[in-house]
Amino acid sequence: xxxxxxxxxxxxxxxxxxxxxxxxxxxxxxxxxxxxxxxxxxxxxxxxxxxxxxxxxxxxxxxxxxxxxxxxxxxxxxxxxxxxxxxxxxxxxxxxxxxxxxxxxxxxxxxxxxxxxxxxxxxxxxxxxxxxxxxxxxxxxxxxxxxxxxxxxxxxxxxxxxxxxxxxxxxxxxxxxxxxxxxxxxxxxxxxxxxxxxxxxxxxxxxxxxxxxxxxxxxxxxxxxxxxxxxxxxxxxxxxxxxxxxxxxxxxxxxxxxxxxxxxxxxxxxxxxxxxxxxxxxxxxxxxxxxxxxxxxxxxxxxxxxxxxxxxxxxxxxxxxxxxxxxxxxxxxxxxxxxxxxxxxxxxxxxxxxxxxxxxxxxxxxxxxxxxxxxxxxxxxxxxxxxxxxxxxxxxxxxxxxxxxxxxxxxxxxxxxxxxxxxxxxxxxxxxxxxxxxxxxxxxxxxxxxx
Length: 451
Ligand code: SF4
Hints:
Helices cover about 55% and strands about 10% of the residues. It has helices at about 1-10, 15-35, 40-60, 60-75, 85-95, 110-115, 115-120, 130-140, 155-165, 175-190, 220-225, 245-255, 290-295, 310-315, 320-325, 335-345, 360-365, 370-385, 390-405, 405-410, 415-425, 425-430, 440-450; strands at about 75-80, 100-105, 125-130, 195-200, 200-205, 210-215, 230-235, 240, 265-270, 280-290. Strand 5 (about 200-205) and strand 6 (about 210-215) form a beta hairpin. Iron/sulfur cluster binds near residues 307, 309 and 367.
């Protein structure tokens, strides 16, 4: 926690990083405004999407079994991993079985979550990210800055320097030229890769399919060129039906990047059939739990499983906007990170405190997750586990007094300041001591109204 506080303090003062992030967020905002215009009734679309996801979560077992049965019939091998160690072991076994030497990957937060790339590289397997943003962060030896736009913190100059170092290209390359350099480099990689690893935007239960949406066509190359395709997906990604994609694809496109629809939308049903010309010879789907069951089994917190990883809550969060994605102790950053990470890793419960609880995240979420309420819920859970009785008493007393303005107004400000620092001061650090003003807000308000 101490490290988190010191890193955030340092990041919050980084004006250069802030300017780059702010520039990108402004562009995102204007595009999203346009994207939203495609919905005749946006609130109905959000409500419906939230309801469909919630229904899938409430009947998770049934939908996952349905997916498994149909996918198996299509020739897919479905594997269940309860944690990252099991998921990595499955990948190791597959790589060994098929003598995999080179892996290409499309953007997938779940593979970041389990540390897949580093794990495979340690085993001597060549791994290449094929999403441009992911390739940039791979070459920078960084982790993704954002769940949708991993290199959001990089300017053209930054990228030109990275490419110059890796590919010897000109420092003056334009945006288009940089994309061209990456494309040329990746073509060679696609041709020699034995295995493609992707995530899943949605697991489609009624057809046993994996839905993947992307803008660069690189994920398509990952699951159609190499002879083995591995999908790693969190269990909460399931949706009941293929027809649900008619809502989820445009909704994710709009809230993720401001598009009406993402450029490439694919549904993968299994390995190549005898009468087909392309596609992998073998396809595996690893369904990952890794703390999700814990989150989903909590009645209040389950709603967080609706998340479609659009990134809107990050872009709109005043805390994320100031500290950026690398300050967080886990790859899931921003409001959704503060909600789910404490369920995945007990030792990171403190991230829930890095929030202003302004509620903007809940307002923008396309699947209506009450994020700020869940952050508050995590705080209470954290305090119950880690807080002292003195702090709990202090909070109760404070909450009680705040509800009765006349009591608050008769307690001298010096006593309030002393009591606050005595009972809750430890939690308030590293901020400056809180000194209560002589007049309370309600007394000032009353005197103004009387005038
Ligand atoms: S919580 Fe909502 S806004 Fe945030 S990434 Fe998930 S779907 Fe998007």
